[in-house]
Amino acid sequence: MRRAALGLAISAVLVAARPARAKDVDATDVTESGLHAAITQTRGGDKNGTVGYVGLSNSHVGFGYEKPAIVRVVNTGAIAFGEHGLEGGIGNAIAGGARLPFGKNHGLVIRGGGELTLFGNRYLWYSLLELPQFHLGYQWLVPNKVADVALKGGYVLLGRHNTGDAAVRDLAGSPEWGAIGSLHLGPIDLRATFTRIYPRHGGTTVNVFEGAFCGNPLPLTLCTDVRYERGDVRLPDGTLTDARVSYVGMTLGYLFDQKKKKPK
Q1: Is-above-0.90 flag for pTM?
Q2: Class for domain 2-18+31-258, per CATH?
Q3: Which one in 25, 66, 115, 149 has a CA-CA gap of 20 to 30 Å to 198?
């Protein structure tokens, strides 16, 4: 929770800050909250299963730029209930660095930071603590609009990819690489992440894709979020076997879109 508080605080400062020369910080800051329903399906491992849940979810994505410094903050959270008990998760990622300009509003970005993810239900547990994490990519940012894409890489300090009843995979001490992307243009909000992890303890890589695709007929928002994981898990007898996890969720809620105020 400290990481979530820190991320929100930094984003709020960037959006609200007014330097002495009365110039606002270029920023995009979007929060979406609402009713959430999801289905998770696991295949492989030691048990196949399909479970559904209904509850609440929230996501916050913020970008800020004040020449030459940049910041990216992502906070997500969900809690839901179903026939098989509780499903829940949190995600917190923060990175800062510099933007090397190609023009007034866009350029090459170099960032460093960290990420924490926890997500679980009856048949799935995925956790990741990555520090450090590095980004190299491109960003176009004007008040209330952003396009940001980057390659990423880092080191997984702690992590698990567990499926079924007793199939486990330790991700601690593993390098990873992947890509991230965000697009926010008025009624359109898209986010995607791909991560490939190279566990030290044998077996295949663990690949994770996450995406959120939202349409925002203000002030409402309708989002579809998806998740797909694939990689070996270790059975109780010590053997490794391929496991696949598919997740699809829908959220109907309210969009908080913080627009930049003009300098007085």
Answers
A1: no
A2: mainly beta
A3: 149
